[in-house]
Every structure is written in structure tokens, then in C-alpha cells.
């Protein structure tokens, strides 16, 4: 093959690329057909806003398959995620905003631009150096956007404007805290964060139960705990997700044990439930 032009990577697998291109075009045509006047009534009436939650749900279902190490269903769920991408692109095209070609072209150009160690003259010997290059380029891109971007109130975009408010609460909290820390708004040590946790707990306990103020203080307590995770290099969202999955697994074992014994969990005493819980921990092999 000839050399790649204009920074484009040389394709080493033309046959696969052609097949994928034909398949993808057929898929795009299917979505287009569904949105036509004589297409599907449901698909025709959808907007970006009406299916926004579908994008989140499909992404989480794909994550479930990844965490379950289930490649068969992961293939299916990735298809559902792709369907959301193409459907949003078709909605945008119908509104004269952009097309799927713009989406693919944009992300391809961004990948090439942010990998100068592959497609340019930069050098990166390890993943840390790659991330440093990536972050440096992102900062330049943000500076260029900020020079022209304004919020609805006419002011330039702020540091936190790039963090979507639709993210899960823990994930959003960790991202905004990380951005604030990057400009120096940070505790010196994790021990200082633990002191903040103790302070927020005291403020929570000082409020009357059942009040909005108590709920707000609980949010502050969670925010402080999240920062312990951030300072420790722990992804709070993933950590809580893993603990929740562990709880679900143990509970399923409890339900199975109760079924084997011919009893209902609802009819057991607290002590009996705790004993069964301890048994589930032993069976699961994760007694902590």
C-alpha cells in the first residue's frame, strides 16, 4: 500500500474495513428508513431529549457485560450503544445540525490530533507520557474553545462547564473535585480530608432528622468521603458499584439458601437474617 496522507493512518486490513463500511452504511440506512414519513411512528417522533436517558441506560448495560466478563452479550449491548449514536446523528441530520459523517470525521481527527506520538513527531515511551501529551493537547483545545465560547449569561465558559451535569452523582463529584484540585483548590493530605469528613458528619448529626438541611449535610458528607477516594487514587463510582454488586451477589445466595430450606426471608428474625448473611459471605468467598 502507499503511504498514508495528511496524517491519516495507513490501513493494514482493507478487506475487513470494506466489509465493516458496507455493514455500517446498511445500518445507517436502516435508521434513516425508520425516520422517514412512512417509517416507524416511534422513531419518527424521537428527539435528542426524549431518548437521552436511553443512551445512559445502554451504556450501563454494556458496562454490566464488561464487569460480568460476558463477551457474547457485550457484542449485543455495544450494538445498542451504536444504535443510540446513529439515531442521535440522524435526528441531528433531519434538523440540519450535523450528520454521522461529521461525528466519525470529528472523532477520527481528534484521535489523530491527540496521538502525535503515533501520527506525528512527538515521542512517548510509556502510558504516563502518553497521558501527559493527551492532557496538554486537551488544555490547548479547551483554551481555543474558551476564547470563543460563552455561556447563556454572556460570560466565558468556566472550569467546571465541561463536566456534564447528567453524570452519575459520584462520578460528577469526583470529576469536578479533580478539576478544582488541578488549579490548587486541594487538601494537602488525605488526613486533612478525613478531618473534613468528621466535620461534615458533625454538621449532619446536628441537623433535625427529616429536614432538607439534614439531607444537604448528608450530601456534603458524601462529597467529603468521595474526596478521600480521589486522594487515594480510587474511582469512587467504580468502588461503590463493586460493593453494590457484592451485596447483590450475597443477597442472591441468601435467597437461594432460604429456598433450599423452604423458608421465606421475610419471615426470619434479624438474628436469623444475619446468620444467613454470614453464611452467604462464606459461600461467596469474600468474607470482608
Mean pLDDT rating:
90
Low-confidence stretches: 1-6
Largest sheet: none
Class derived from helix and strand content = mainly alpha
Report the count of strand segments: 0
CATH topology of the largest domain: Helix Hairpins
Radius of gyration: 25 Å
Describe the oligomeric state of these chains in a short phrase: single chain
Structural commentary:
Helices cover 69% and strands 0% of the residues. The N terminus is likely disordered. It folds into 3 domains: 100 residues, Orthogonal Bundle (Helix Hairpins), CATH 1.10.287.1080; 66 residues, Helix Hairpins (Orthogonal Bundle); 48 residues. Helix 3 runs antiparallel to helix 4, helix 8 crosses helix 10 and helix 11 crosses helix 12. It is built from 12 helices and no strands. It is globular and about 65 Å long. With 288 residues, it is mainly α.
Keywords for this entry:
288 residues, mainly alpha, Helix Hairpins, 3 domains, disordered N terminus
Secondary-structure map with pairings?
Elements: H1 14-34, H2 41-45, H3 52-67, H4 71-94, H5 100-113, H6 116-119, H7 127-148, H8 169-182, H9 190-206, H10 212-231, H11 236-261, H12 270-284
Describe, in short, the structure shown.
The chain is mostly helical and 288 residues long.
Amino acid at each position: 500500500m502507499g503511504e498514508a496522507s495528511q496524517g491519516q493512518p495507513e490501513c493494514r486490513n482493507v478487506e475487513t474495513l470494506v466489509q465493516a463500511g458496507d455493514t455500517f452504511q446498511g445500518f445507517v440506512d436502516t435508521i434513516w428508513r425508520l425516520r422517514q414519513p412512512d417509517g416507524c411512528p416511534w422513531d419518527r417522533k424521537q428527539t435528542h431529549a426524549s431518548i437521552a436517558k436511553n443512551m445512559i441506560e445502554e451504556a450501563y448495560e454494556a458496562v454490566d457485560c464488561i464487569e460480568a466478563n460476558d463477551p457474547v452479550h457485550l457484542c449485543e449491548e455495544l450494538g445498542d450503544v451504536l444504535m443510540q449514536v446513529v439515531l442521535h446523528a440522524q435526528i441531528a441530520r433531519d434538523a440540519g445540525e450535523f450528520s454521522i459523517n461529521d461525528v466519525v470525521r470529528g472523532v477520527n481527527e481528534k484521535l489523530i490530533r491527540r496521538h502525535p506520538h503515533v501520527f506525528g513527531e512527538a515521542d512517548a515511551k510509556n502510558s504516563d507520557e502518553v497521558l501527559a501529551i493527551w492532557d496538554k493537547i486537551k488544555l490547548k483545545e479547551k483554551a481555543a474553545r474558551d476564547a470563543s465560547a460563552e455561556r447563556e449569561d454572556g460570560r466565558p465558559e468556566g472550569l467546571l462547564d465541561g463536566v456534564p451535569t447528567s453524570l452519575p452523582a459520584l462520578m460528577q463529584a469526583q470529576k469536578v473535585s479533580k478539576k478544582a484540585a488541578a488549579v490548587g483548590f486541594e487538601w494537602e493530605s488525605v488526613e486533612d480530608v478525613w478531618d473534613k469528613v468528621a466535620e461534615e458528619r458533625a454538621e449532619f448529626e446536628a441537623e433535625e432528622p427529616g429536614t432538607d438541611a439534614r439531607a444537604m449535610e448528608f450530601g456534603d458528607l458524601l462529597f467529603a468521603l468521595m474526596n478521600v477516594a480521589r486522594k487515594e487514587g480510587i474511582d469512587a463510582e467504580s468502588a461503590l458499584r463493586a460493593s453494590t454488586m457484592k451485596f447483590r451477589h450475597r443477597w442472591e445466595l441468601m435467597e437461594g439458601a432460604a429456598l433450599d430450606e423452604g423458608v421465606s426471608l421475610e419471615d426470619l428474625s434479624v438474628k436469623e437474617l444475619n446468620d444467613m448473611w454470614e453464611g452467604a459471605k462464606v459461600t461467596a468467598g469474600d468474607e470482608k
